[in-house]
Give the backbone structure.
Amino acid sequence: MLSLLPYIIIAACIIVILVILFKKFPILANFDTKTMSKEKEADTKTKIMDERLQRKLKNYSEKVKPFSELVKNFVQRKGSLIYEKLKQIEEKYKNTTKKDELETPEKIDNFEKKIELILKEADDLVSREEYDLAEKKYIEVISQDPKNVEAYRGLGNLYILKKDFEDAKETFVYVLKLNKVDNQAYEKLGQIAQEEGNLENAKENILKSLDINKTAVCYFELAEICMKLDQLEDAIANLEQALEIEPNNPKYLDLLVKISIMSKNQAKAAQALEQLKTANPENQKIAEFEEDIKNL
């Protein structure tokens, strides 16, 4: 019996092992090597996608960086837009030959006198319609005297003559930064707005100019704007203000007759016509005005 005991113990151990294996068999049965490889493959794909995403983000960042720098620089330059424009113009004329220029005496001890001479040269060039050379002269003044309002005004007026209204507008806006109560700058901005067809903005700027300095020309310009806005009574009132300052101005009287006829104000039209006959008897519209007044 004792000799069988070792065999009984061995058999019992085998049975215990078999029982354990039997219990674990479902888990082992579900343990698929294909699943293992798929999971491993999925992990690998995820890793690859993560790495690809990181590369794309890096590439995107590199592409966006120049643009963001551009935007940043633009914002920084916005406050000095006119300065940048002037620098471009200055660059444009760097290689201008001396034979195309009016010579300004180099050795002038009085700085203000030198600036005055250059401005006069620029104005003379404008009167001869040599706009490019005049532009260069104004830039020359600004490069030496960056806050010279007269040079900016001259430059702005030159742009208006060239129908370059955007540059003209920027220039006169900059004049107002130098001098907030510059009535001429408001007047010019009103003229530009009128040229661009923005009558309400034109009226607003002319009124600002008149608030600072009541000039006949501004009242006349305001009358023209009111006429285009079909505000005829306001137009007549503004022309009367202009004529108080310059009583015999034929241009103002001509428009007053015209607007008085448009508003069917016969008495006002006749009175203005009599003044026009005295101020400008050769006006070729007098006979036409007389006929229009008669037919009111």
The chain has 14 helices and no strands. The radius of gyration is 43 Å. Residues 27-36, 70-79, 93-105 have pLDDT under 50 and may be disordered.
